[in-house]
Amino acid sequence: MRVGLLRAVGAATAGYGAAVAAWPQLLAKPSGLVDENGRTAAATRTSLRPLAWRDAACGLALVLAPEGPALTTAAWLRIAADLGDAVLLGVTLPRRARAKAVAVSVGWGALSVAALCTGRSGSADGGVSAAS
After folding, report:
1. Pseudo-torsion of CA 103, 105, 108, 113, nearest 10°?
2. 69-92 and 3-22 helices, crossing angle to 10°
3. pTM score above 0.85
4. How many CB atoms lie within 10 A of CB 9?
């Protein structure tokens, strides 16, 4: 497991989630969920905020979880959320935004899978904790 990469993915995810919670248009605009004037409807802003808080929480879990089962679980939650987003966005977004949104979701999920499945790094003892 590449702990540093998982923590970086977590930090990016937490930051992006917090930003989207504050400014839902950051996700709405590239997802094609704005009107012809580029405005995000109130109902769309409301529906995007729980996704944003979920991402922020998953990201914080990746940053803060101790190495081992807790970090692995946090990573799998992040991956499940990304793949779920890919499926949901792939079948619901406007056609012009669909491929990009799916690619971004799958890409972040794949990055987390790669970090989980590649060589260990992140601690001075090669990633092996005293509890192992």
Report:
1. -100
2. 50
3. no
4. 25
Where does residue 34 rank: exposed (0-12), middle (13-18), buried (19+ CB within 10 A)? middle
Helix (H, G, I), strand (E, B), or coil: what is residue 2? strand
Residue of higher predicted confidence among 82 and 125: 82
Q: What is the 3-state secondary structure (H, E, C) of 25-88?
A: HHHHCCCCCCCCCCCCCHHHHHHHHHHHHHHHHHHHHHHHCCCCHHHHHHHHHHHHHHHHHHHH
pLDDT in tens, 14-26: 999 999 999 999 9
Contact 85/105 with Cβ under 8 angstroms?
A: yes
**Nearest alpha-carbon partner for 104 in 55, 42, 37:** 55
What's the rounded mean pLDDT across residues 77-106? 94
